[in-house]
Design a protein that fits this description.
Helix content: 55-70%
Structural class: mainly alpha
Distance between the termini: 58 Å
Length: about 120
């Protein structure tokens, strides 16, 4: 006995609904990214190379999640010792922008250095 197309659609819809519920319970939200063809080719290459020779390439989700986590770690390290010489307050908050924009303000310099 084969399923009718209506039953197949209903079964597929139920599976998708359960999948969305599981992801929501884990706090995982879908994000859509628009990439040019050359960027997709680069991403494919990076997923393969970064996984290591002879291993299954990273999925886009795995690769991008890893990049985000590593960038956060790097930023945290950069900010640990960052302190403005002008206001003596720790960054990134510092003086709250009172001196921002002046050449002596370290927050101004740091923002330029940390920008991607």
């Amino acid at each position: 006995m084969s399923k009718t197309p209506e039953k197949q659609r209903a079964t597929a819809a139920e599976r998708k609904r359960k999948s969305r519920e599981r992801l929501a319970q884990l706090g995982i939200k879908p994000v859509q990214v628009n990439l040019a063809e050359s960027e997709i080719e680069t991403l494919d290459m990076l997923c393969k190379v970064r996984a290591g020779e002879g291993k299954q390439p990273y999925s886009y989700d795995e690769y991008i999640s890893t990049l985000i986590r590593r960038d956060k770690e790097r930023l945290t390290e950069q900010l640990k010792s960052a302190q403005c010489a002008m206001c003596k307050l720790p960054l990134p908050t510092g003086c709250g922008g009172v001196n921002s924009g002046t050449s002596a303000c370290y927050k101004y310099k740091l923002n330029n250095r940390l920008a991607l």
